Every structure is written in structure tokens, then in C-alpha cells.
# Entry
Amino acid sequence: MKITRVLSVSILFILASHIRAGDAIAMGYDYNGVWTAVTYNRSSTPRGGDHYRQSAQACVFALRDLRFRAGEDLAWTKIIGKSDKTGYVTVARGHELTAGKDATAIGRGNSQAEADMKALEKLNTVTATTDQTIVYRYFSYGADSEPDRNPVKREPAKHNRKVASKN
# Structure
């Protein structure tokens, strides 16, 4: 019994300690359910770099940025996509005429062209073929990226503060 428990705890620890990285895409809606803002957060450096994010961190940063951008009309938010893989990402929107609704699609690929194509294919699949627009394109490092062997360590900013004096 004790051996099984120790083994279970060890396996959970190993799985939990595996750092996952990547990106997250967040969308905000108003009280009528209409989207008001969309944004993303990504790992812009490989593992070990200053801007390497775990998936959970990317979600938090994307939602924080969304709340800032959307302003007072924001009623609720949703993570519409996230990934732990290295690659190119495209976020696209289109309008579906018969239902009169907008659709958002996320494409991922090994090149930006492939990600664009996949996002637009997804819009076509749901017949959102009117007013197709690519909203965001970006590259994100994932858990499968090579560690950054020479991360740039930045010096903290030095502020020259002038102290006001009574003279």
C-alpha cells in the first residue's frame, strides 16, 4: 500500500514538474454577447529566456491585457485557444451571412503561410466566408523548443532621481 502511494505521488510530481510553455488567445464580450476585444500572449523566447511563459501564465497575461484593452464594456472573457507547441499562429475572423454572426478561427503551422491557410480553411468550414480578416499573426516558443543557451541578462533600469530641496 505504501509503495503504491509513494509511486503515485512520485509520478504526479514528475508530471506536474514538466514545464509547459506556449501561447494563449483571449476574447472579451459585452453584455449582449458581442465580442469587443481579442488579444494574445506568447512565449517570445525559448526555454530559459526572459519571455518564456508556461501555458497557465500565458492565459493570465492574455486575460489581463484583454481587460485593459476592452474597457468598461467587458462583461465576460474566454480563452479561445492555447497551445504548448512551438510554431506560427494566425487568428482570423469572418462573417457568416445566413446566421448573421461572426466567427473566429485559429490556425497553427510550421510556417506563417500554413497557419494563415489553416485559419482561413476553418472559417470556410463554418461558412464564415464574408469579410475574412487576419487579426493576429505571431510565432510562439513551446515546451518543445530548445533551451536558450545564452539568455540575455538585462541590468535593472537605473533611475536618476532628483530630490527636490527647499532652497
